[in-house]
Specification:
Helix content is 42%, strand content 19%. The protein is of the alpha+beta class. The protein starts with a helix and ends with a strand. One of its GO terms (molecular function) is peptidoglycan binding. It comes from Crenobacter luteus. InterPro entries: SPOR-like_dom, SPOR-like_sf.
């Protein structure tokens, strides 16, 4: 019996040694190669013959989600990243819209001048500007006298007797005249004529000097009227429209002009 037991042990050792020698070395890269001819395409509903009866009886749709749930969570990261869409950044709103509007109005501002206006016209315009809240810089100059007529005269003499003697002498030379009594500033002077045009007055003056009357003079009659020009600087479009409406209503004959 001992020799039989020893023979069994020896056979076991030989079988183990043969199994060890028949295995491929772990480091052999050729052991990892896959034979393309050994790959087979399986149908969608294929189940392994080694599946348990319970698994074989389960629908395929119930088995697949369970397998899918075993996938690592990191596989969903690309999908989550691709589903995230960057929202466009809206431009920042202006810090102060009123300041921006003020700059726009300043860029569109205009300058207007209105005139020349007589004293009566200026009074009407001032009354019309007050409700509109528009201010203007005024520039005035002395205008032409109201009547525009030219007067030829001789200054008064030292005494009334001297004035009467000169008047008689002028009449003898053919120059009609009369003494001034209504004008306090020219009272006692001798008036020789009133002309609408300056040329007529100068012609009479030349005749008087030719006749030996050297102190004859020409003066334009009437009180000089002041002429005023209004200047409106930096008008907004709305203020410019309101000023134009006022000009058309009060003085259509005196237009508004752009400042020079």
């Amino acid at each position: 019996m001992k020799w039989f037991f020893g023979l069994v042990v020896l056979l076991n050792l030989l079988v183990a040694l043969w199994g060890t020698l028949s295995e491929r070395a772990p480091g052999d890269l050729h052991a990892l190669e896959v034979n393309p001819q050994g790959i087979k395409l399986l149908p969608g509903g294929w189940r392994s013959e080694e599946a348990t009866p319970a698994e074989a009886s389960r629908p395929l749709a119930e088995v697949q989600p369970a397998a899918a749930s075993e996938l690592p969570a990191t596989l969903d990261a690309p999908a989550v990243a691709s589903a995230t869409v960057a929202k466009p950044v809206k431009p920042a709103a202006p810090a102060d819209k009123r300041a921006e509007a003020a700059r726009a109005d300043q860029g569109a501002a205009v300058c207007r001048q209105w005139g020349e206006l007589t004293d009566a016209q200026l009074a009407r315009v001032r009354a019309g500007l007050a409700p509109l809240g528009l201010a203007a810089a005024e520039t005035a100059r002395e205008g032409a006298p109201a009547s525009g007529k030219f007067w030829v005269y001789l200054p008064r003499r030292a005494t009334p007797e001297a004035t009467r003697a000169l008047s008689a002498e002028l009449k003898l030379k053919g120059f009609d005249n009369y003494p001034v009594a209504s004008d306090p500033e020219r009272q006692g002077a001798l008036s020789l004529g009133l002309f609408a045009k300056e040329e007529g007055a100068n012609a009479l003056l030349a005749k008087l000097k030719a006749a030996g009357v050297a102190d004859a003079r020409v003066e334009r009659r009437g009180k000089p009227e002041r002429a005023t020009t209004l200047r409106f600087a930096a008008l907004s479009p709305d203020a410019d429209a309101r000023l134009a409406a006022l000009q058309a209503r009060l003085l259509p004959g005196v237009p508004l002009k752009t400042c020079r």
